[in-house]
Amino acid sequence: MKQIIVYGSQYGSTKRYAERLAEMTGIEAVEYTKAKNIGAYDRVVYLGGIFAGGVMGLKKTVARMTPQQELVIATVGVTDPQESAYFENIRKAVKALLPTQLYDEKNVFHLRGAIDYSNLTWGHGLMMKMFHSMMLKKPEAELTADARAMLETYGKKVDFVDFDALRPIVEIMTKES
Ligand SMILES: Cc1cc2nc3c(=O)[nH]c(=O)nc-3n(C[C@H](O)[C@H](O)[C@H](O)COP(=O)(O)O)c2cc1C
Description:
By secondary structure, the protein is of the alpha/beta class.
């Protein structure tokens, strides 16, 4: 089975996961803007950072796939993957983006990433500043999991990358190849 790992990463944590996954499986990892012939693989394993609820590069990558291919998706965000209600919404958004044949719930995973406020782009820094001041005004009980994660990490440098969380993806990738 022909497989490829494709990733969308702005600040590098998703890239670290993709490169570790490549080491663990022997399958090449390529950044989504550089990946060639995505339609030629039986299975595409896509890892993308979450930005404002969207998965970086997923839409553009999927546009280059056919419904006959298999797609495995891993999102990378600062929100704890145990926050099931939040990730249910993320999966709904992902599902809405894909042709029905490409979406398979058991092939969707959530990994925890990293953030370093001293390293954000100017635009992202401003976005987070505005979001932070909006969230501070909200009652605690109304905060969604991503907002709580953002409030807890705001202005800091945190790294939640956990390569052990790649194991179920490795299992899928090595089972039938
Ligand atoms: C502008 C901005 C928006 C973000 N939005 C979300 C979000 O909606 N949900 C989430 O869990 N994490 C969010 N994050 C955190 C990123 O997903 C996290 O830093 C991730 O590890 C980034 O991946 P990368 O290092 O590969 O770019 C956001 C970060 C920034 C800077």
